[in-house]
Amino acid sequence: MNRKWDFVIGIPETRDFYLGLSLHSWGKGFLGFGIAAALVTVMYWELLALPGELYLEILAAVGAGLLVIATAVLSMYITTTRRIKRDFRRSGKESYIQHTEIDGFGIRVTVQGRQGKVGFDKLMKVEETGKAFYLYLAANQAWILPKKQMEDPEADSAALRQLFSNVVESRRLKLKKS
């Protein structure tokens, strides 16, 4: 396999990457906030001796938990989006071109005249989402391969899945099913 792409990496692609990182690292925390909100609701329901059947108490607790989770996720989305927009404004650009070449030996990426080259064994992780492939160089740094910018997203994604499955250890892969 020898593929070359020129991806335009802008705010949406960068936002999706960082939102994924945040959701992964904060997912259990959001669940904890929701459970805490549900427990507090039950505690106050009992403390205030609010009238109603048990199902109303359960419904209120679940509703409070879901509301807290939704509020936390929305807050993370807004702050992440603002931070990324601010960072792009500071750089003076709204996007950049990421020239990407992948062959049987590794990956070469050129951005603004700076080139990086990595063998498959040096990738920390390869993750596929509905929108992109992320080739992790570090825990919070990855090359982004947006699927919608590929010539044939389905065929290219299938080829990348096959290549990564052959050359990257399975414990470092998080790919969609074909």
Describe the structure.
- The chain has 178 residues and is of the alpha+beta class.
- It is 51% helix and 26% strand.
- It is built from three helices and eight strands; from the N terminus they run βααββββββαβ.
- The strands form two sheets. Strands 1-2-3-4 form a four-stranded antiparallel sheet, covered by helices on one side. A four-stranded mixed sheet has the order 7-6-5-8, with helices on both faces.
- Helix 1 packs antiparallel against helix 2.
- The longest helix is centred in the middle third of the chain and has 38 residues.
- The mean pLDDT is 93.
Write the SSE topology.
Blueprint: E1 3-10, H1 11-47, H2 54-91, E2 95-103, E3 106-111, E4 114-118, E5 125-128, E6 132-138, E7 141-146, H3 153-167, E8 173-174
Parallel strand pairs: 5-8
Antiparallel strand pairs: 1-2, 2-3, 3-4, 5-6, 6-7
In short:
The chain has three helices and eight strands, in the order βααββββββαβ. It is of the alpha+beta class and 178 residues long.
The order of strands across the largest sheet is: 1-2-3-4
Q: Output mean pLDDT.
A: 93
* Element pattern in H and E: EHHEEEEEEHE
CA-CA gap between termini: 18 Å
Number of strands: 8
Please describe the biggest sheet, giving its number of strands, its sense, and whether it closes into a barrel: 4 strands, antiparallel
What structural class is derived from the secondary structure elements? alpha+beta
What oligomeric state do these chains adopt? Answer: single chain
Overall shape: it is: elongated
Low-pLDDT runs of 5+ residues are none
Strand portion:
25-35%
**Radius of gyration, whole Å:** 22 Å
Give the fraction of residues assigned to helices. Answer: 40-55%
Total count of helical runs of at least 4 residues: 3
